[in-house]
Amino acid sequence: MSFLRAADARDESGHLIRELHGVTLAQILEYLVAAYGWPELDARLRMNCFAENPSIKSSLSFLRRTPWARTKVEELYIKARTAEVQGRPRH
């Protein structure tokens, strides 16, 4: 059995997950909300856009103008998708 490193995990299309090929910020956020929910996203990332009246629209607006926050969201997405592809539980 070969183990994939997180850096080598690929999506269903064969693209490296860490490169976010063809994945929009909206898709990333929708995936994370479905996977974790707003309260868990706030607990993991500590951003008011996930705590105070959260919505996809308001969160996207914040993430698009706040590079450090977008980076944290993208990193969580990569971690979660990699775990999903490798058949491991998301942490």
From TrEMBL:
Q: Which InterPro entries match?
A: DNA-binding_VF530-like, SAP_dom_sf
Pfam families assigned to the protein according to its UniProt record, in alphabetical order: VF530 (PF09905)
Q: What is this protein called?
A: Transporter
Q: Which GO terms describe its molecular function?
A: DNA binding
Q: What is the lineage of its organism?
A: Bacteria, Pseudomonadati, Bacteroidota, Cytophagia, Cytophagales
